Amino acid sequence: MGNIRFNWCGEYNSSTTYTKDDVVGFDGSAFIAKKTVKNINPNNNEFWDLMIAGAEKPYIVGEQKLIAFRASELPHGWYFRNGDNYLLNSPQGRALNSLSANYKEDHKITIKVINGQQHINVPTAFSADGRGYFERSVDGSKRQVGNIENDAIRNIWGKLYNVMQWRGTAGAGAFHVGEPSTNGSGLNNRKGNAVTHPNDSDFPERTITFDASRVVQVTANDTRPLNIGMTPVIYLGV
Length: 238
Description:
- The protein is mainly beta and 238 residues long.
- The protein is 5% helix and 23% strand.
- It is built from two helices and 14 strands, in the order E-E-E-E-E-E-E-E-E-H-H-E-E-E-E-E.
- The chain is elongated.
């Protein structure tokens, strides 16, 4: 026994080649390789022995979360949530199709024919423009699981009074320039109305611009908090 040396290799990965005495995690249990093996999961007792039995599977089929592994290095049973299609009669397809009708409707999991064969897709965590969705709690009545809300920010409102602008000038973007409430296009002073015209006025025109980047560090095409990248996944258990 003193000469036996185990090599813990983490969660089982079908793309890794294991050699004798390599130990992996799989479905909550630990298995040890009996000989060199690749792409044969630990349920096959020709190549693997059960080392430590787990109490139960830690996850259920259909569980979704963010995970700290690259999409190309996911633990066994977890799949990248990117909308990929799998053959309906494949292990992944059967797992997806076993989910409830409500689950499949909420997460837009559908069966379709591709190249003459039936396929079914995993959910996607990405919008059509490639941005990842933020995930938010719902109450199940006013808003249901899988419902998508578009971009929104709290209203930012302000007003400048008595700014000289020519009649008919229009604002752009977040700004609106109202029309004057009195006749003429001139200035008022304490002694009376001094009427001027665009081509002979000495009062300079001003351009008023609202630019959020003057008061925040970074601006972009979406509103987002400080964040760190993780991989969105779904558990299929196969």
